[in-house]
Amino acid sequence: MKTRDEVRVLFKEKMVPLTHQRLAVYEELCGRRDHPSAETLHVSLKKAYPSLSLATVYKTLQTLHELGMIARVDSPAAQARFDAIVETHHHAVCSACGRIEDLFDPRLDRLAAPRAKGFVVTGHSVHFHGLCAKCAKARRTIPH
Amino acid sequence: MKTRDEVRVLFKEKMVPLTHQRLAVYEELCGRRDHPSAETLHVSLKKAYPSLSLATVYKTLQTLHELGMIARVDSPAAQARFDAIVETHHHAVCSACGRIEDLFDPRLDRLAAPRAKGFVVTGHSVHFHGLCAKCAKARRTIPH
DNA sequence: ATACTTGCAAAACATTTGCAGCCGC
DNA sequence: GCGGCTGCAAATGTTTTGCAAGTAT
Predict the structure, then answer these.
(1) Does the distance separating the beta carbons of B117 and A128 come in below 8 Å?
(2) Dihedral-angle region of residue B15 (phi above 0 means left; psi in -120 to 50 means alpha; beta otherwise)
């Protein structure tokens, strides 16, 4: 969690205007640990900022994400993707093209269950993210 | 990958009618390793089954998933969820209520990168799934 | 025969976009 | 003042649903 002044500096560094809405969204998100959706944030913020629109929340979340100030939990793909292999395995997801590769590695299958109080673990999955061979090559060939 | 007869037995065991469409969706999914979306599967299947509707593909994928014959990759939540903590950490996701808890465990941060040919890893995340304390308790109190 | 499924179309969501007017810097 | 942001509304894209007609067992 950053102080309001640290946030101000971050925005100035990146040459991105800091508006009331952006500050409000960021502070609301910092104030909760339940990983809210855009919709949920919007509902909460409406109380203090009745004119705030849902579209602005979406745009702001995207901006904050690009600034590296917030993270998205889970899937980089909005759309569900399916797999005929139900046995335990893991995935490498390409951030550039969305390609998903299977990984079979017994070491990844044997991770210790978390010591979260009361959470009953039935399984786990590991996602590596990065660039697939094709996209990594393309990026080396044509930088920027 | 299961043979057509094994699939037939599986459906019979579960008392679920096996239709041409279901067999087609399952065999198409088994035949590819690119983790297609419902839409992608529908496009491919249209060639052989022009009358197959997208809604049926969705319903079939749901059915196959409930039978444990296929897996969904990634997020159990369709909707994006956000996190103000950008430092490396991991998550426990409740399958019942969707609650997402943070996990901080340095052992999970130091996983070996996959030996997939050419994949450039920039990071990884671990999701444990199961039941949160609340849902686990509810299920013990009122079984079924 | 009959219960369950399919296909169609429409609805329900989640998210993005275009644009006029407003606001931070 | 100016460029970028906001809010509105409409568009887009994905997934779900209701229902009449068809089909597997």
Answers:
(1) no
(2) left
Interfacial B residues in 14-33 facing A (CB < 8 Å) = 26, 29-30, 33
Q: Kindly provide the residue ranges of all beta strands, DSSP E only, lying in chain A, ordered along the sequence.
A: 71-73, 81-83, 90-94, 100-103, 120-131
Show the tokens assigned to A46. Answer: 């409406």
B101 to chain A: nearest residue by CA? A34
Thinking of the domain A87-141, which architecture would CATH place it in?
2-Layer Sandwich (3.30)
With respect to CATH, is domain A4-73 assigned 1.10.10.10? yes
Per-residue pLDDT averaged across B55-70, rounded?
94
| Fold match between domain B4-73 and domain B87-141 | no
Whole-model pTM: value is: 0.86
The two three-digit tokens of residue B125, written as one number: 């995340």
